Structure formats: structure tokens, C-alpha cells
Amino acid sequence: MNRKEFRDLATPDEARAAIDSLALEGGIDRVPLEDARGRVLVARLDAELDVPGFDRASLDGYALRARDTFGADEADPARLEIVGAVHAGEKSDVVLEEGQAAEISTGAVMPDGADAMVPVERTDTDGGGDEVLVRTSVAPGDNVMFAGADVAAGERALGPGTTITPRDIGLLSALGIDEVPVRAKPRVGIVSTGDELVRPGDDLESERGEIYDVNSYTIAAGVEDAGGEAVLYPHAGDDQDELEGVLRTAADECDLVLSSGSTSASAVDVIYRVIEEQGELLCHGVSIKPGKPMLIGRLDDSAYVGLPGYPVSAMMVFRTFVAPAIREAAGVPAPAAATVSGTLARQERYEEGRHRLMPVGLVENGDGETLVYPVDKGSGATTSLADADGVVEVGPETDYLEAGESVMVTLFSPDVRPPTLFGVGEDDPTFSRVLDGLERPRYLSVGSRPGLRRLREGVPDVAVVAGPLGRESEAAELGGWEREWGLVVRPGNPDELEGLADLVDRDLRFVNRTSDSGLRSSLGAAVADFAEKRGTDRHEIVDAIDGFDLGLRAYESPARKVIDGDADAGLGLRETADRLALGFVPLGEQPVRVLVNPDRTAKAGVRELETALADVRDVASGERMTER
Amino acid sequence: MNRKEFRDLATPDEARAAIDSLALEGGIDRVPLEDARGRVLVARLDAELDVPGFDRASLDGYALRARDTFGADEADPARLEIVGAVHAGEKSDVVLEEGQAAEISTGAVMPDGADAMVPVERTDTDGGGDEVLVRTSVAPGDNVMFAGADVAAGERALGPGTTITPRDIGLLSALGIDEVPVRAKPRVGIVSTGDELVRPGDDLESERGEIYDVNSYTIAAGVEDAGGEAVLYPHAGDDQDELEGVLRTAADECDLVLSSGSTSASAVDVIYRVIEEQGELLCHGVSIKPGKPMLIGRLDDSAYVGLPGYPVSAMMVFRTFVAPAIREAAGVPAPAAATVSGTLARQERYEEGRHRLMPVGLVENGDGETLVYPVDKGSGATTSLADADGVVEVGPETDYLEAGESVMVTLFSPDVRPPTLFGVGEDDPTFSRVLDGLERPRYLSVGSRPGLRRLREGVPDVAVVAGPLGRESEAAELGGWEREWGLVVRPGNPDELEGLADLVDRDLRFVNRTSDSGLRSSLGAAVADFAEKRGTDRHEIVDAIDGFDLGLRAYESPARKVIDGDADAGLGLRETADRLALGFVPLGEQPVRVLVNPDRTAKAGVRELETALADVRDVASGERMTER
Fold first, then answer.
1. Residue B1 is nearest to which of A46, A120, A208, comparing CB atoms?
2. I need a surface site. Which of A27, A73, B328, B387 has the fewest CB within 10 A?
């Protein structure tokens, strides 16, 4: 194995400077007004006409010569001859002489000779309608909007760099402008590499080690969020010629090329070689965690950034270094500072002297304070960020942060709002439906025992636990129900399983759950009972069940192994079996309990959950809640 | 004139309740993952597979049986036989026995028999490469990500109501989901009426009283901002059958129909009639200013809201009543509360007992406090909102607000940022270019005298004044330049004008500027000089100039009158004449001075302007600044 080593790691500031030195700007687009919202004006727009373009009546009433009304009042109205009418959108041929008036509607052109108007409410007409009594005096200009009063020809309308709002579209409409010059969105090519990657929607062969390509669509969404235009290139695999071709095409067509995905040495080698031949490498490796293996350089006339392969690392690097550069090039202002200060929920240690970007979740405690907890499923995790609200940056000089320390969290976006309820614990389909009805819940299915432990540590609001638990919690119960568990088998139960005895005595492949799971606890208790009844040792029974030690984390996975033909029976719920149209051999019922953090009973999200749980008994007894 | 009166005005709360009672919800869209960003999930999505789908090596190194390494360290490494290699994306046929290891790359499937892996950094290979020395002991599971560790099959992935972020797209990608069920955007039909309205881009006949249709595109942009889909219907004019047809088509095709634009009685009558025949009118008229003439009802199966015709009123009503309902229907969360508290810059009086929505601008004073000033160009103004930052709501019981009173401003959107510099005063093309180079300036061209007055009142940062001014200001000068003014005439000056004498003695039509303008002041001074030279009275000269009293507000308007053939000469700048390819007869040079509010000299935006003004002398002497 011969791999490039990351020597001479750049500091985060050096990496930022390297990206800033690359020109990402696109050119100029001319877009129709209806597509201009949110785009950034590239040049000043001046008014080329007066708005309004004529002296305009502000109300319905009568156009007249102001001096004809001088001295008029309720008692002694001025009597004027009506010589015509002008409506909005009509050309007026009326010319007023002394003592004359013209009926006029709001927005109509003031007729020649008129210098003011009086609203209809201050007038009366005689029966005949050829005279109007004006019961007020008006001054020249009253109730008239003069040409150019709104916008004057030659006036500066919008400056370069303006991000066009609906209000600006109003101004541009008034000026008759139906096309505006805006900054072209920087085109960002996304090249994903790695033989193991499959595009979402295609079939996955797990036994070949295939995984879905997370980075392409995620980074594309990030690019669009930052004001760029994402261009996804066909997935290149690890074939060197193919990868080189894709990189060069992307560099030719885009302002910035982002590669990501491959962890293979050969892909890295191709990228290094292509950049060395056709461009320049400004930075390889940054002293940051996650994100060390970041490349920054030029490729032909395009900028190039190589993102780490792991999705969480790739997104963190993208957010921290690349998104600001795209926003800058797009002319999109940096989002309003969206930071929240909170209290770190547990101690964090840092081994390496690298700048650290720590994804965190937020939860409000009983006192309305924000607790901050790290979200980390390990370096290969693809999905941690969906459970996080923001990032805490920790400098390289910091070895640890104490629990209770105050930290500043940069939210992923200004509109991130922390969950109203934070729960952890057992996977349970009934609880999942309950969550659907809540305002903004977050639930991490870590299993019953870890859930209970976390509840004791004081971070989540509630924990959901199932089955018998060795150590009872002091936490109060918010609600609970029973669920039926047993063996999930092939449709129609062709092997005619009846219970545990079949697993012990017959040659059947079983799939278990991990010991985190409440189902596994109930199975353990059932096995102990069974052993006692047979008058034998529990270990003997366990050894006799093929697959008892193979525990899967996911509550549906044993059932899915049965579907795939990899097992004859799996530990699971009747509801899972029903939903996947599989057979089911009941072994018992187990309680599911929702336990609440004693400090949080008054929290709004907890009370919302408590109300929702009051309806649950029906659900557990077989009725399905309708999805909202 | 027989007009519907607005009796029984609804309160703002009643209007809100009426809109809430209308169902605006669209149905369900299924969108591809790449279009899912920002959309709102309509149903829960559960994981249908484990992520990863297999036990996966977390690093490059060797897969092995953990117990073979027990006790190994630097001094006494474990020696294992290499029996194969597994790469990412490859199916492995390797099966490890005791004492064996397999080369493995990051992301590859753990081979059968292996229960842990050791990173390559902790190993050595002998020259031959068929043995590996492992210099550390590992526990079962070390450096392995187990199937389902990231996401477990059956796990709740995203709940209904989730607004999809790039991070959620990462989670969906990992699950292989390439299409998601989201709330359809509510379809909002926009019907603009009024014979006087012309769509931007089309030709305008001002003499017919035509104006550009501001509401259609502006409201459409507002609809899209709120998460709806805007559908613009062809402009209906005031023809009753045509309007009725358009309204019914829109009601048939949309979840909500918004009409706006017409101020004509006949259009209002049609709308009343159609709604009475085909729907229900819940509310006609709301006790709010601006916005009184708002209609709320149903039209066939669609909701209907009639917006006021005046663009500012229409937008304010849309923002206050309609946008929240569209957001609710779209499932888009209300934007984070974006409010700013500030100090009212001047007293405001309110005559009527109506709830008032007052558009305001913001400016930071010298102490870093926010001053709030009303932005109001009069009820017919179309463009005031482009100069405003937010809204102050004033209850019907409030008669006036004192200057200096603290008010709460709701920003138009959370990303509104007040201008870095607020200037008022003379229109000037040089200054306009200077503004282009500044960060985020706002400039209201109100003319020299009003600008100076406002500067004295203490609201703007700077005022730009031109020409001679009766009353000198105490304000310090930040910069200045000279500009050449005179008569703008037809190209090539076919009438051979040489100066003021031609306007006085010959039969030429002249167009003047209003007395707000510094140009008009200089012309006034020149007329006085000319009268003195002729030994006559100033008034006689003025009377002899055809059009002297006709002042236009806009600095380009006189020149444009010359282009249109409506005048032989207009008051203007050489620069305007040059840019519009017209002839020019110089009458003099006048100073343009930028005066600064004494409290604001240290403000960042003022210093930025000061720096930019240092370069202006070159510009004024004929060089053009390049646009940024």
C-alpha cells in the first residue's frame, strides 16, 4: 500500500486564503423579471421614464381649476359646469376653461387646463348632471400625483449588488423593465468517484460493498443553497481514464469542480496527476477535523476543491470553506449571523492539535436553557448531520471542554429551530406514529438500555424503553402500551414454527437483535424460562439456537433477512410482520414505556407528547392512527 | 357616480379569521430528490434498508480475528498470514481462519471470519508481503462500522412536515430514496384588471394614462417567497365578460385567486357579481390603512382575496394577511421573527381610527442607535417599499407617535439589512456612480433644498446639494465637484440656440425643473443676471420664456421632452445631453457638494463614502468611472 501522505497540513486560514485566490465568478445572465427574485443585480438600473408618466388623479372626483374653488365651503359651494369625463386608461380630449370641471376617475390623466381635483365625497351634482357643486376649496396640485413624483426619469433605481426582493420587482415593474442583468450563478460541477457508489434510486448490492452516493445530491443542494448552480456529472467509478475525462469535462464546463466520494488510492492518484498536469495544487490537506484530506487547486480554467470522501466530513468542509466562496461569487450576502449560545451537556476530549468542527444538537432543558450535545455516529456515518442543528468550532489549542461550559453554536442556517421534543430509546412503530403528530420532534433510536442511560445523564427529554430492564429508572412514566413480539417467519409460516422449541430443536437459521434492544431482553427472559422448564442451562439453549449471537441493530432487519432468504426466523414485532406481509409466531407481549426526564415535565413539547400518548392505547390494541 | 361603500369594515383579526377559514392547501407532489430542497415532506419516511448494508471497514488496513492480536504490541507484534485483499465495491470471497488476515480498504466489506480490523499505520509487512506484523491488539468490532449502525431498517428517518435541508437530502440519499412526497405548492392565480395597466416590457402610452402593471409581478414574487406557485393570468382590462371569464378560469385552476389592479367601478362590480353568483363574500373592507378595500371570499372551489389597487397597499395587505395563509398551506414555517427596535425619527399623526401599517426605513445614527423614519410617497406611489426596510404597526387607538418614541419594526424579511449609508438630495449622475461602489447605500433624490432640510432634521447621513442655496448649512462638506449645466436641445442644435436670449426672444418651447432642484436655482440666478444686463425686471424675463413655470421633477425629463418633440430646449446637464445623444448649449458650471450630518462623520458608511469621493474630481473632469 502506497498512499499519499498529508504532510505540511495547511491551517484553516491558509485553506480559506487558497480558496479566495480562485476566481469562481460566472458571467452575466439576463433574466426575465418573473425569474429575478433573489438574483443579484450586476449593474445599476436607472429610471428611463417618469412614474407616473403624466399628472394623475389620486381619487375619484372632479378635475378643475383650483382658483375656481377659492372661498367655497359647505354653505357656499362653487358651482362648476361639467364639460366631460376622463377615465383611467383613456386619452382625454377635455380642455377646461374657467368655471368648468370634468368628472375624473382615480388614475386618470388630468385634463388640460385643470390644476387640481376634488374628491367626489366633497361634491354634489344637480339632478341634471351638467353642473357640480364643490363644497370645499382646493389648492393647485391637491389630489394630483404629478408626473415623476413616484420615480423620476434618470433617477438611480437599483444599485449593482442588490439582491432583488419582491419590493424591488415592484419598482422594476413600475419602470417597465422586464429583463434584468444579474450575476450568473457560479456553475459548480460535482464529480463523485468510487466503485462502491450507487446513485439513489438504483439497485444496491450490499454483498459487493455498495453504498448509496450521499455526497452528490447533498453537495448539490448545498451549492444551490449558496446561490450556485450544481451540475452533477456521471459517476466515474475508479477507472482512471474515465475519471480523468469527467474531471476535464467538468473543468471545461464549470467555474468550480468539486470531487468527492472516493476513498480509493487510485482515484486520488488520478486527481493528483490531472491537477499536476493541467493545473496547480495550492493546498493538500488541512489541519482540521473532520476534513483533513481536502485538496484546493486549479484545473484548466476552473477552480478545484477535492472534498473528503466521508459524507459528514465532506459537508462540514463544504459548509466551512466552499459555501462562503460560492456565496461570494454569486453575490449572495452571507446569511445573518445565526448563532446560539448554550451549555455543553457533557465533557468532550480532543486528542489531536487540529481545529475541530463539532456537529451538535440542541435541546432546551426545564429552565429554558439550551443544552448542546455532540452528534457523532463515527467517521463513516453519512447521516449524523440530519440529527444536528449546528456546529461548535474548537480551536487546536483546546484539549477538552468541560460539561457545563458555555459554547457558541453556529446554526446550519438562520431558520434552524431546535426540536420541540428530544427523545431517545427503543424503535417502536407506535411511537413513530405518535411522533408524526408532534410539532418538531427529534428521536434517536439507540435502543432501550442506551436510551435509559442517556435519560439518566440528563440530555434527552424522554426515553422509550421496552421489555424487562435490569435496573429500574426513577423517571416518571408519561405513557405506555403493550406490543406483541415473537418470531417473524416466511409468509404463511411454511416451516410450521410454533415457538422457541423449534429454534432449539430444529435446524433453522435465526436472526436476533442486539442487546441494546428491548426485544432482545424479552427474548433473553423467555430463553431463561424455557431452559428452566427443560431443566437445563440457559447457555445450552442459546448455543442450540443458530444465530442467537448474531444481533442486528435494526428492528426490521431480522424480518428483512427472512424476506431475503438469509434466515428462517427473525426476532420482531407482529406489526412488522404484518406490514411486510410475513408470517408471525407470537412469543409474548412486552410493555413499552415512555419515561420523562424529571426536570422536563412542564416543557411544552413534553406536554404535547403526553396529550398524544393519551390516545395510544387504542392504537396498540390494533387500530391504526391515520397519518396526518 | 355610484360606488360600493365600505360599510361594516372588518377588524384585522376578523379579516385574518376569514382568510384562515378558506382552505388553500394543494395536494401532494412527488418530486425527485434533486428538487426536494426546501420542500415540505407530507408523510413520514422510514428507512427501508440498513446503512451501511454490511459490516464495513472504517480505515485502510487489515481485517483479522481480534483474538489473534491479544497481547500484541510494538515489541511483540502478532504475525498473521495474508490470505487475500478486499477493496471497496468488491464482493469478497475471502474467509479468514485463525492466524490469518486480509488486506482491506476503507469502506470494503469485512470478510467472513474477521471480527475487527487494524489500521495500516499499526502494521508492517515483511519484504515478501505474505505476512503482516500487527503492532497493537484490537478488540472485536474495532474499526468496523456494523450494518445498520448509521441508519437501521425500519427506523424513522424524517417526519411529516419536515422542510427538507441539504442535510436531510444526505439522509435520503443514504437510504437510496430518489423521490419524495411533498406538499404541493398552493397555486395562486393572479388576475390584474384595469384598462390603464400595461405589462412591463410592452410600450406605454402615457397620454392615454397608461401605467405599468406593478402588482402582478410583485405579488407573484411575494407568492413564491411564501412558498406558493404563482400563475399570472392575461390582463383582463375592464371588459366585464372578459374579466368574468378570467376570474372563473383562475378559480377553476387555482387554490387561491388574487385580483388586484383595477380602481374602476365596473371591475369592482363584476367581481362582486361573480362572487355573489358563484361563491361567497366573507369580508368586504377591513379597518386598516393602507388596505381598506380588501375583499375576502370564495369563488367556486377556490379561495378569493381582492387586493387594493394601489401597489403599496396591495403589497402591505398581501404581506400581512395573505402571505401567512400561503405559508401555512405550503407548510413553510413562518420566518424567524425578524424585528428591530428603534427610535422614531419624527412625530407621526394618525387621523383615522384604523389599524395602520406604516412602511419605514432604518438608519443607524452616530451612536449606533437605529432611527426609524416613515417612507411614504403618497397613496398612489408604486415604489415606496423598495426604499423601506420594514413595517411599524400602529393600533387604531393611537393618535400620534412622538419623535424619539421607541417602536418595534418588523423587517420585510429576516435578511433585510439596513443601508450602510443613507443620503438624500440632488440627482446627480456622478454621485450615482459613486454610490455604485459603496457597500449598501440608500439614496432618495428629493432635490437640493428638501435634502438640506432633511439633513437639518437629523435623519439622513448625508445630503447632496447643487447650485446656489439661499441658506447655508452648517454641515461639513465631505466632498464636491463641479458640473456643467445648460440647455439640452435636439441633436446638432438645429435651432442654433446660443443662450438664454434665444429662449426669451424667440418662439421656443422650454422645459424647466421644479424649484426643489439645484439646477433650477442656478437657472434662477442666471435669469436674474440676464435681467440686470438687459436693465429689466426678472419677472418679465420669466414671463417671456415659454415653459419657465412648467417644472419637471426628474433631471432627465426635460431632455426626454426634447427627444419626444414636446420641447425645443430643456434645462439639464451636459452629461445627460451626451448620454442621450442630444445637443447642449452651456449656461454655466455649478458646484455639487456632499454635506454630512455632524453626528455621523465617524460612521463606517460615511467614511467609505468619503474615501470614494476623494476620487471624484477626475470623474467630474470628464473621465467615467468603470462600473464595478
1. A120
2. A27
